[in-house]
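Researcher: Quick test of sequence recovery. Tokens follow.
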């Protein structure tokens, strides 16, 4: 796979209900040279299980055990 030209970052917290729709929206874009970094920010629902269903080389999944909030989660993905 060639080096991605674009990085997309997403933090998810207890987002099980709508997460699949959000991820599919990104994956269905006509532009495909991207990496998609997703962080489960300490969710207590099935968010992580939804993320594990995706087998796409553009997706990298991260998980934190405790909630740190959106700003810290996004900064974690940038670092």
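Model:
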């Amino acid at each position: 796979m060639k080096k991605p030209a674009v990085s997309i970052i997403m933090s998810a917290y207890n987002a099980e209900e709508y997460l699949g729709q959000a991820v599919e929206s990104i994956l269905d874009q006509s532009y495909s040279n991207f990496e998609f970094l997703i962080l489960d920010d300490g969710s207590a629902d099935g968010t992580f299980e939804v993320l594990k269903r995706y087998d796409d080389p553009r997706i990298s999944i991260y998980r934190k055990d405790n909630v740190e909030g959106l700003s810290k989660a996004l900064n974690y993905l940038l670092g």
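Strands lie at 6-12, 34-41, 59-64.
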